[in-house]
Specification:
Layout lengths: L3 E6 L2 E6 L9 H15 L6 E6 L4 E3 L7 H4 L3 H17 L5 E5 L2 E3 L1 H7 L3 E5 L3 E3 L10 H11 L1 H10 L3 E2 H7 L4 E3 L12 H6 L3 H15 L3 H16 L2 H11 L7 H4 L9
Parallel strand pairs: 2-3, 3-5, 4-6, 5-7, 6-8, 7-10
Antiparallel strand pairs: 1-2, 8-9
Helix pairs in contact: 1-3, 4-5, 5-6, 9-10
């Protein structure tokens, strides 16, 4: 994974973009990202995934346009289909996923962040789909934007190609938190991933499963799915341990944490 780093510490997977100088999304980088996501999907002990950049001031500035002449000969097979597959793979992971954005998240970089469940941006970050300025269109990002902020707001951003500040993105609901920097490790207990890691692993997966179901289903179908999931929730060892600890006013030790307490790094 030359352009993408991968490690696991305390049940949190961290995928780090590292293709200097701008983390431009090349076919090679997408392949490295796919391999990292594949490793995440095969690890049942993980509780969360963080995608971040090793390059200060840039999450990803978009696609590598130097590949466009070759890609244009067969765009679907040489870029579009695989890029879509990678983003759907990310979106469908069974654990919470977080994009830590520092600096520019534009075009394909913003699409990568939009495919995550949650987004945390530094105050200096800029986000957008500016492809119209070069005659392009970020279709993957437009579809996800519409589902998040509605058709009118999404088309405003895409038609104008304008970028959002972190504060504007927060006000619009496109990022969940704005921070001054990401100096703290994603494993720090006060970070978003660290807060998630303290919760029941089984509850996190149930929540992700139901949220994923709701995206493509009717309200009634999703409520029915919620009823089915509740049957599993009430028989889960985590709820038994958690409710017992609450009633006895003790700190809970979730059974789902015990199998991953040894932690460890993975490259």
């Amino acid at each position: 994974m030359g352009s993408v780093g991968y490690e696991v510490v305390d049940a949190i997977a961290v995928v780090s973009l590292n293709r200097h100088p701008l983390n431009l999304m090349s076919r090679e980088m997408l392949k490295d990202l796919h391999d990292a996501l594949d490793a995440v999907g095969k690890n049942p002990e993980l509780c969360a995934l963080v995608i971040r950049s090793d390059i200060p001031g840039v999450f990803s500035a978009g696609s590598d346009m130097k590949e466009f002449p070759e890609v244009s000969e067969d765009p679907l097979n040489r870029k579009v289909l695989f890029e879509d597959y990678v983003l759907r793979h990310l979106e469908r992971l069974p654990i919470p996923t977080i994009a830590e954005i520092d600096g520019h998240a534009l075009g394909g970089g913003f699409e990568l962040a939009l495919a995550c469940d949650l987004r945390v941006a530094t105050s200096r970050s800029t986000l957008g789909l500016p492809e119209v300025a070069i005659g392009g269109l970020g279709t993957n990002g437009l579809v996800r934007l519409i589902s998040m902020v509605g058709k009118s707001r999404a088309l405003d951003l895409v038609y104008t190609g304008r970028t959002l500040s972190a504060t504007e993105a927060l006000d619009m609901g496109l990022v969940n938190r704005v921070v001054e920097d990401h100096a703290e490790s994603p494993h720090h207990p006060d970070s978003l991933a660290g807060q998630i890691a303290q919760q029941s692993r089984s509850s996190l997966r149930f929540a992700k499963d139901l949220a994923s179901h709701q995206v493509s289903s009717s309200l009634d179908a999703s409520l029915d799915e919620g009823i089915r999931i509740q049957r599993e929730v009430f028989s889960s060892p985590d709820l038994i341990a958690g409710s017992s600890a609450f009633l006895s006013k003790k700190k809970v030790s979730f059974p789902s944490h015990r199998s991953s307490q040894s932690g460890g790094d993975g490259q």
